[in-house]
Amino acid sequence: MVRLKHRYILFEILYPPSAYGTSREQKEKFSEFSQTPKDALLHMHSPSPSAVSPRSILLLLKRVIVDHYGEFASGTVGSLIIVKYFSNRTSTGILRCSRNDFHIVVAALALIDKIETHRVVVRSVHVSGTIRKCEDFSIRRARKLMADLGKEDEVERGLDEFISMFKSGDREDDDE
Questions:
Q1: Helix (H) or strand (E) holding 10
Q2: CA distances for 7 relative to 59, 71, 95, 175, angstroms
C-alpha cells in the first residue's frame, strides 16, 4: 500500500485599506492606516466577513489555478486540495495539498487579490508536513501578534479561545 504524503499550508487573509475609497469612512481608514505600526496591524488583521467561507476559498483557489496554470495543473493539484480549517474571526486557515504540488498552491494563494467584493492579500505563513505543526506555529504567531499589539491582558483569554478552536474536533483525522 502506498502512503500519500501531504503538505499543510497555514495562510492568512489580510484586508488592506483601499486608497481609492469612495466614502468618507474609507478615506479616513486609509489615512489612519499609516499613523502607527499598531494601527496598520489592526487594519490588516481584521476579521473576515461571513461571506468568506472554506468553500468559497477552495473554489476561488481552484479557479486561480485554472487561470494561471491551466487545466492540467487544475486536474492534478485541484483535486487534492482541502481546506482543513478556516476561522473568520482570525482570518487564518489551513489547507492540505499534495507534497509534490504545494509550490503551485502557495503561488496560487499569492495570486488571489479579491474574495467576493473585498480586496485582499493572501499570505502563506507556514508550510509543514503535519497539521499539528501548523497549529503550533499558528498559536505561537498569534501570541506574538497579540504582544505586538500591546494587549497582554487579553492574550491569555484570546489564546485559550484560539486553541480551543483547534481542539474542538471540527477537523477530521489524517491517517491516510
A1: strand 6-14
A2: 19, 22, 8, 14
pLDDT, tens only, 125-164: 999 999 999 999 998 988 888 777 776 555 556 566 666 7
Total number of domains constituting the chain? 1
Q: What are phi and psi of 83, to 5 degrees?
A: -85, 110
Q: Tell me the residue range of the domain where 49 lies.
A: 6-129
136 part of a folded domain: no
CATH number at residue 92: 3.30.70.3250
Give the pTM.
Answer: 0.77
**DSSP string over 56-67:** HHHHHHHHHHHH
